[in-house]
Amino acid sequence: MLDGLRxxxxxxxxxxxxxxxxxxxxxxxxxxxxxxxxxxxxxQRLVKVGGGEVTLEAFRSTYQxxxxxxQQRVRRGVTNEExxxxxxxxxxxxRLITDAALDQRARVLGLAMGDEEAQRTIRDEQAFKGxxxxxxxxxxxxxxxxxxxxxxxxxxxxxxxxxxxxxxDSVTGGVTTPQMMVxxxxxxxxxxxxxEAILLPPAAIAPPPPPSEEEVxxxxxxxEQMFRAREYRKLAVLAATSASLAKSDGLTDDEIRxxxxxxKDERYGAAERRDVAQMVFKTQDEAKDALxxxxxxxxxxxxxxxxxxxxxxxxxxxxxxxxxxxxxVGAAVFALKAPxxxxxxxxxxxxxxxxxxxxxxxxxxxxxxxVKDEMRAELAKSRVTxxxxxxxxxxxxxxxxxxxxxxEIAAATGAALRDVDFVDDMGHVKNGGTxxxxxxxxxxxxxxxxxxxxxDNEAVATRDGGYVWFEVADIERARQRSFDExxxxxxxxxxxxxxxKALSAKAAELVxxxxxxxxxxxxxxxxxxxxxxxxxxxxANRPDxxxxxxxQFFEVPAKGAGAVAxxxxxxxxxVADATTPKFDPAxxxxxxxxxxxxxxxxxxxYEQFVGGLEKSLNVEINQKLLQNALGGDAEK
Length: 636
Known about the structure:
Strand content: 15-25%
Largest sheet: 5 strands, antiparallel
């Protein structure tokens, strides 16, 4: 056949005929979708990034690798559908596009990394070092293999990632938090208000008249769904969690109190704070001489001037004991029972003299005795190991594989079977309460209400690394209740609505009087109600008022008034005073805020840089190919 083609192409007529034949063949390939033969397989290009691309195979490979890592982290199978609902596929694609854009930028800048330098940086990686602290080739091969790379492919990937990091670090490396931003946060957090308030109870106003039968029926007709009976399900639950395996009998009171002290500031209020100034001296004799002079009447400000120090070198502001970098200094400062000078504390940097000018007592909503049992249970849970949970999980799964019920499995494994009486999908039981300590929480309820009676259900992975198995024992379907069934509830709801409306109107009238200039003392006297003096109010949690109430205290200007609904009625308040401490950029709190904000600023600049780079490269995504790759509708 080839000899015939060569012979035919020897004269001009034959060449014309051969050209027509080959053109027809090419057109046929194009019409039947085999155009890749002539386009360099461009149909496999998922994304065009300037002169580069992200191929379909690269996306699939990376997506599957990242999905496996996600499954390992959450310790359960994650389907493609779940991953796509969470935007996981788009995250992977965005990263590949960013990498392609940065790789092109590196080539334009002429950046490169030699094999010797790459090998050196790999040897320096802590993850590849053995117990002796030296590079372990076998450990390197094992880790690289688990990541799905060969040694050469990992080397290429490492080079590319290093160059990308050098480029982005050059853009974000010099980022610092603007002082204006830190100062704004300081003003927001440190502003302190003094509030005077009156609680206007429902008894202070005349009760609204009872509604008529017609009004009740009308109210019910407009809000039928409010009085609909919810669906309830009865469950049998078996758990392999830290809570189900926790043993608190061996815990001592000292261990529990130590745990309480560790978490109480974060959970139950605010630690004691002290306004502190301090100086560091090279020798103990210098520190003793300075302390004697200060106790003799010399002011800290005068000593600061004599030593040619700035106020920022001396003033710490309001600090907690945990804020001190040296435990000895913190212990000395907080050992004082009243403002004054603390004992000299020795540190590696010298001898510290500290003055306490003001003490702000700790405020806690709960005492140790009130939460002792809660702390005991939580500490016991924290000591359950993943191996214990896994062992019970495997034992239960072995029993399930043999077709046993949860009741039989509980008897065989010693795990406790819990019967959960009729509960709705929000965890509420019929009497209006809530199912306490439900293992798996909302995740269990979601799975239970997606199942049915008699169904063999997979275990629900809990957020603390445990597992919960369940059976739906019975179902009480949702239904619309009749007016006669809920008449009493409807009347009660109408009375509450009417009373709340009348109380709000009265509170608004009284707030108007305060804003018009009437002193709150006079208003309280006329109403025969006591005044509440609420001092040291900041935008922070405190035990006596909810965060939403505190927020309202800051929604009005100083010398302004407002009202907010709280338990027991309407709280009518007047902001008697508002102060903000002077901002000190060198204070530990300011430095801490700046450090907390810096990662977000770095990330913003990084995203702007990458976004601008991708825009300049004119990124184009083949949505149809992406849809085929994911087996569903790609995001348009």
